[in-house]
Amino acid sequence: MTPLTPLSAAASAATFASGASSGPHHVAVSGPKPLLPELGAGNSVPPPSAATPPGIALSSGVGTPFTGVIGLDLELMSVAADGTLWLVNQTDSGGRQILTYNFAAATLQPVYTTPDTVVSVAAVSADALYVIVAGSATWIGCLSAQGAVEQLPALPDGATPAQVTAAVDGTLWALDSNGLTYAYSATDSQFAAVPAPGLKFNSISVGSAGLIVGLASLNGQPPMAYTWTAATGWTPLPSLAGTTGQWLAACADGTLWFLTSTALAVLLADGTVKVMDVSSVVGASSWTAASRMSAYVAGLSGTQIGIFPVALGILDLPAVPWPAFTPDQQTAYNDISTALSITTPGGIRAQYSNGIATLSSWQLTVATMAAPTNVSAADWQMVKTQIMTELTYVQAVNNLYTQLGKMTGLLSTMQSDQLQGVAAAVGLTVQAQGPSKVTVVLDSLFSTLVTRIGSLFPPPYGLVVSLIGSGLMAASTYTQQKYSPNGAQGALTVAYSNLATALAYAIAETTKAQGDEQTVIVQDWGKLSAAGQAIAQGIWTWPDNMTGQTLEGLAPVMQLYLYQALMPAAWQLLQGEILFTARPPVAAKPHAPSSAMMVKYVVDSSYDQLVWYYICCAAGSPADIVGNTGPYPSPTLLQNIFTLGVQPQDLFGGQNGWALPTVQSPGWTAPDPSINWQPYAR
């Protein structure tokens, strides 16, 4: 058995290259750290200094993946309650490397290596990770970020460990290869079997000593959710009774995450349930969660492995009232409102959504106020600290939405410019094509924009992506309902003459949605404290150099979708076939230039050639493959489209978002799909 070997970042690569591994290094492992204040719980506290989980967003759902440094070798991952994300990668030599992910720098930090297989990991904190390592024997150990490894006692009766799960309060359980469960006793320093008659567990998860759950099959049935207590043992989990699942995680804050085939549900301790569609994550594996704010999953992002955050958005957190005051504390609060000349009901808190309130001036006044004589020093300090914290958070949220408004304005300008440019390139005029119906797939456009924004603003600027995505996707729904309520799901179909107005409406609705979100946040202590802490601690940051030029990378996305929407208003696809023989008379060829067509053909043993033509020509021009004389799109127009990454066979073949209206020359019969396209003559 070869235990894991702690590595520095510099030594990691060299050790892997040589395949070297030092002997066991057993040390005592310090106990788990206490939990941090829970984001959004409405704790009456000043801004904490400790880091909070980074996977936090405004809106619930699958977020933009972080890629680039993850690679294709990711096998396992586990997130701790303090937000530390531990990863296990396979090495070129067949061993395993354990790393942590730095969210702020978007980098990986190598921590440990082993030539053996890592079967399971359970993150406790930045300082502790439990592992199961399989080599000549399979064992459970605990790793610390300081380079310490402690091998734990074996499971009873020679059982082989298959999964380990741990919580910050010291709770530690294991699952063996036969689906049996074991609990670790710190008093006895050993694992003990936990009876579960008739049950075979697929997985277990502990959030604390009071929250232990698992997925188990009873007599070969599909796995269901179970929970364990010392008093009752393993019993069906009432909140998920009768529901089969693929993954179940318990968190220290009392939250449960539950995965079915396509949906992920987060169940809060207060009974709140939020269900999210996660079917967009391709090749999902290694789900992990440690708080109610977010889960993570590995999946395919293009040709890379990405880690997708799935967030319970701040906007979906349960409503939390302002921290209550005692009568004397309420007197102190009223004194503050009076000192600020606020006479409206509710005092200063009722002014947080007032867009022209002089919050910074009020905060300075509160900071320099002397303690009133009618309340105790302790009550005054408590109220003053709370109001100062609230003012800090409200101003931070307001600043955030000010920046968001600027960015939305830049997007509006870019959208208008790109629409005019693409319309001119396609050859559209309101006079000629005004009544023509055009379709913009708004859902796809906006989701692609969000993904591209994610590449323009990588971590730590994930907030930009979350905010823009929230506003754009909401606007997409509003715009479709207003302009094409009976159209295809996710698509906006309008007359070309109304397209600019409809797209401008989408931006206006985005701005409105952002304003509504801002108001909701600053009027709810749970949401405000979550957002305020995220900003105060640097989890949410905003690039200080954002300009219209910064967003130039979005232009190709807009251009592509606008070309797909506008080309059908001016151009059609003419399909026709011609047989060319080696004998006279010679068949006439189409008039279209090679730049406006693609072809497929077959040749027989007599050298007769049957050619299928796909010609882009003016909408309404004759459906005659030989008699059609155009007009045809200029080579420049088509080249502009192909420069955006469009494959010619997509445009001429009507696929991957391209759908020019099609007309067919007399005698047309579609070729067999196995016949290949001939190269496009650029």
Structure notes:
- By secondary structure, the chain is an alpha+beta fold.
- Helices cover 28% and strands 27% of the residues.
- It has twelve helices and 31 strands.
- The strands form eight sheets. It has a five-stranded antiparallel sheet, covered by helices on one side.
- Helix 3 (359-368) runs antiparallel to helix 4 (377-426), helix 4 (377-426) packs antiparallel against helix 8 (496-522) and helix 4 (377-426) packs across helix 9 (525-536).
| Strand order, sheet with most strands | 1-6-5-4-3
Number of helices: 12
Intertermini distance: 62 Å
Shape: flat
Low-pLDDT residue intervals, each spanning 5 or more residues? 1-54
The secondary structure category is alpha+beta
Main sheet makeup: 5 strands, antiparallel
Indicate the mean pLDDT: 85
Strand content: 25-35%
Helix content: 25-40%
Number of strands: 31
Radius of gyration: 31 Å
What are the SSEs and their pairings?
Layout: E1 5-6, H1 9-18, E2 61-62, E3 74-79, E4 85-90, E5 96-102, E6 107-114, E7 117-125, E8 128-134, E9 138-143, E10 149-151, E11 161-166, E12 172-176, E13 181-185, E14 190-194, E15 199-208, E16 211-218, E17 224-229, E18 233-236, E19 247-250, E20 256-259, E21 263-267, E22 273-277, E23 282-291, E24 294-301, E25 304-311, H2 327-339, H3 359-368, H4 377-426, H5 430-433, E26 437-440, H6 442-456, H7 462-483, E27 492-495, H8 496-522, H9 525-536, H10 555-570, E28 571-580, E29 597-603, E30 609-618, H11 635-643, H12 648-653, E31 662-664
Parallel strand pairs: 28-31
Antiparallel strand pairs: 1-6, 2-25, 3-4, 4-5, 5-6, 7-8, 8-9, 9-10, 11-12, 12-13, 13-14, 15-16, 16-17, 17-18, 19-20, 20-21, 21-22, 23-24, 24-25, 26-27, 28-30, 29-30
Helix pairs in contact: 2-4, 3-4, 4-8, 4-9, 4-10, 6-7, 7-8
